[in-house]
């Protein structure tokens, strides 16, 4: 049984990761300051192999038992959160990553950082390959998140090259599933919340901008495969099936049986026009590719989360 430390473990992705690691027979230490995570996401976990610690990783922290894997997922991740917490977002990417890498070094643990497709910015290369360096506006509204993750990647590689830490870098593309926060501002939770209340579905611009949506179980499988591999360079994990946001809106209406109309609003500043992963490296290095198609994943989300949670009425 391996011991796994998960930062951001009470968040959407972190809680699913905790579940899957426990299912595979590991011990899990879950760390979260609950700024954007929630105890509701982990309250169902009632096993002795799971431990929750409420702390903020921008300050030094320690674990007084052996640790085999460190999954560093902590960070505000939605525009609503990082626009509300710009300095904290930057500090999690810098101070938090530094402290967590130091912990991994001390324990000689395998360290995986959950980076993001946002490091590519508004990409000039399509689909995005890991060798592409990106097109990011460092002073735009998304800059605090984009640059925090770019810095965290650089710090991770520096610890690997200079300090010999066994590191991995995972670039996550849009992911969805149960435990998304209904009001976090991202497309799928917003569309589902609006559709389930028969409210107008708000699409930015003309809806022609594209995204690629990965169901959470596929994403977590790819994450664990990367952590258990020997790869050190960035690997894209996401679903290469590409949809316009207008196509997504229609799919959500169909799955939910909604009577919602679709309305259009002004496009936000620096909103990426295209987002699609090239997953060649994930296929070759990890034998990984997603299995859940968009409509199936939307239906699973609806079934697993329930209407109340998706409209923001969860207890």
Automatic annotation (TrEMBL):
<keyword id="KW-0333">Golgi apparatus</keyword>
<dbReference type="GO" id="GO:0048040">
    <property type="term" value="F:UDP-glucuronate decarboxylase activity"/>
</dbReference>
<dbReference type="GO" id="GO:0033320">
    <property type="term" value="P:UDP-D-xylose biosynthetic process"/>
</dbReference>
<feature type="domain" description="NAD-dependent epimerase/dehydratase">
    <location>
        <begin position="5"/>
        <end position="238"/>
    </location>
</feature>
<dbReference type="InterPro" id="IPR001509">
    <property type="entry name" value="Epimerase_deHydtase"/>
</dbReference>
<dbReference type="GO" id="GO:0005737">
    <property type="term" value="C:cytoplasm"/>
</dbReference>
<dbReference type="GO" id="GO:0042732">
    <property type="term" value="P:D-xylose metabolic process"/>
</dbReference>
<dbReference type="GO" id="GO:0070403">
    <property type="term" value="F:NAD+ binding"/>
</dbReference>
<keyword id="KW-0456">Lyase</keyword>
<keyword id="KW-0472">Membrane</keyword>
<keyword id="KW-0812">Transmembrane</keyword>
<keyword id="KW-0735">Signal-anchor</keyword>
<keyword id="KW-0325">Glycoprotein</keyword>
<keyword id="KW-0520">NAD</keyword>
<keyword id="KW-0210">Decarboxylase</keyword>
<dbReference type="Pfam" id="PF01370">
    <property type="entry name" value="Epimerase"/>
</dbReference>
<keyword id="KW-1133">Transmembrane helix</keyword>
<dbReference type="InterPro" id="IPR036291">
    <property type="entry name" value="NAD(P)-bd_dom_sf"/>
</dbReference>
<protein>
    <submittedName>
        <fullName>NAD-dependent dehydratase</fullName>
    </submittedName>
</protein>
<dbReference type="InterPro" id="IPR044516">
    <property type="entry name" value="UXS-like"/>
</dbReference>
């Amino acid at each position: 049984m391996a011991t796994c430390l998960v930062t951001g473990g009470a968040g959407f992705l972190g809680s699913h990761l905790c579940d899957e690691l426990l299912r595979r027979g590991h011990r899990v230490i879950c760390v979260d300051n609950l700024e954007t995570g929630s105890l509701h996401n982990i309250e169902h976990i009632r096993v002795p192999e799971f431990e929750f610690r409420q702390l903020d990783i921008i300050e030094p922290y320690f674990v007084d038992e052996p640790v085999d894997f460190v999954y560093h997922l902590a960070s505000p991740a939605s525009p609503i959160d990082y626009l509300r917490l710009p300095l904290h977002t930057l500090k999690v990417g810098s101070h938090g990553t530094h402290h967590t890498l130091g912990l991994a070094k001390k324990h000689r643990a395998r360290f995986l950082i959950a980076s993001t497709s946002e490091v590519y910015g508004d990409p000039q290369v399509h689909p995005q390959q890991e060798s592409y360096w990106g097109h990011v506006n460092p002073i735009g509204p998304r800059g605090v998140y984009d640059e925090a993750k770019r810095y965290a990647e650089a710090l991770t590689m520096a610890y690997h090259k200079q300090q010999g830490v066994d590191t991995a870098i995972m670039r996550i593309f849009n992911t969805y599933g149960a435990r998304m926060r209904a009001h976090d501002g991202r497309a799928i939770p917003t569309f589902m919340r609006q559709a389930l209340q028969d409210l107008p579905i708000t699409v930015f611009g003309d809806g022609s901008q594209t995204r690629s949506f990965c169901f959470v179980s596929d994403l977590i499988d790819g994450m664990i495969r990367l952590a258990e591999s020997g790869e050190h360079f960035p690997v894209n994990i996401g679903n290469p099936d590409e949809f316009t946001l207008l196509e997504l809106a229609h799919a959500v209406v169909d799955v939910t049986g909604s009577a919602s109309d679709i309305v259009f609003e002004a496009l936000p500043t620096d909103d990426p026009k295209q987002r699609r992963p090239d997953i060649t490296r994930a296929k070759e290095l990890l034998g990984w590719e997603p299995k859940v198609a968009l409509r199936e994943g939307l239906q699973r989300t609806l079934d697993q989360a329930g209407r109340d949670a998706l409209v923001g009425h969860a207890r």
